[in-house]
Amino acid sequence: MLTMIHGRRGDPASDSYQNRQSLSERVTMKEAAWPVPFTPGLEYNSAAHGTWNIVHTGMLLPGAHQIYVCADNCNRGVVLTAAEMNASDRFSFIGIREEDLYSGEMEEIVIEGVADILRRLPRKPTAVLLFTVCLHHFMGCDIPYIYEELRTRFPDQDFIECYMDPIMQKEGLTPDQKLRASIYDCIRDDGKEADRGRVNLLGSDFALDRDSEIYEMVREAGGRFLELPSARDYEEYLAMGAGFLNLCIYPPGLYGASRFSERLGRECLYLPACFGYEEITRQLDRLAEVLGREKMSRERIRKEIALCEEELEKTRSCLGHKPVAIDASAVPRLLGLTRLLVSHGISVKRIFADAFSPEEEEDYLWLKEHAPEMEVCGIIHHNMRVFPRGEDPDLLAIGQKAAYFQQTAHFVNIVQGAGFHGFEGIRKIARLIREAAMEEKDTRDLVVRKGLGCESCI
Predict the structure, then answer these.
(1) Which residue in 367, 392, 327, 425 sits closest to 46, CA to CA?
(2) Which of 92, 149, 411, 447 fits as disulfide partner to 48, beta carbons 3.0 to 4.6 Å?
(3) Of 354, 336, 11, 400, whose CA–CA distance to 170 is shortest?
(4) 70-103: b or e for each residue (b if 16 or more CB lie within 10 Å)?
(5) What is the pLDDT of residues 73-123, one digit of tens each?
(6) 287: closest CA among 369, 383, 216?
């Protein structure tokens, strides 16, 4: 059973948002349409690359080998990602040429190519993440036959069905969401009763912050956390099948977490990393209920909130009137973080986002009322290639893309929420903001490194 603990959903505007989308790359908050402020079109790719892509996520699986089947122009990016993170020994590709598209032998090309790669590897992988691409959709390639044949030939390896199909980026599940689901497909139900001493965290690239309240609650209940980012070996990854409860805090991982939970008949709690005290409290109450523990006392909750207020006041005092910019790659709940800072007297001048999360309707409406002149800027809008860099030399940024567009050395260097959660997550971000205000970073060097937290040879 999937339990989702977050804000309410719905369209806050009665008129069609398509009629109010902006052709410009920036609008004020009062003008920003829900949930997409900007008219889709040509897209700009900034030089800030700290967010993870499917290559980085695939490398989390211990001992696995990734194989991409695509034309050379598409393979270039994924090959470079593997090389930049010093993981070329765990990565291979099969190049498709034009004549392969009408030869009628695509299935055999994939099968024989994968077989040749595996025979040549000095050390056989635990699992193979095989990525087929857009071309295979267009050609009606017999994907099930490919996997059936490979599993017959190589019974000692697990094969994971993966897709690099950006044609699906705008509709349906993205390649990222598909991978966050399929990467758990090798974990099977062994028929044994679930172990109430094991709790899984699914769908995240970053390990859960060990100081977070949900980690503390599981530990105090005598449980052990299992998660892919901290799995020491393939056996520990497979051991996640024995967990009695699955948690998900990162929105792109929700589809995979719910699919995995349904397959194994486990309960799944969606506790998205957020910035509202009431929502955090509801999440902790629900987790305590499922764990069979007493809820965190209201006195303890008040103490946690008071500590957050203390850290936020220190941050406000430290920043003074210094303007702040935040981008959507830093945290999944961009509007929630923005509302938290604005409501505590911090001057958020600008946010960078191409769309708003459907989970943040209430924060959207609050900001339209309380910060109507705050700017909303696109990230991939084509005009961002000429967006004026460095126009606010004193500005502090939260997130790499905001730091890049603002050309500031004072920025909080996190992506995708960094594994922070709950009251302690709020406090840690507040401290990081103060650190960023006091210390300079080498922005030009940091933001070009792919996959923040991964090894980089750049």
Answers:
(1) 327
(2) 447
(3) 354
(4) bbeebbeebbebbebbebeebbbbbebeeebeee
(5) 888 889 999 999 999 999 999 999 888 888 889 899 999 999 999 999 999
(6) 216
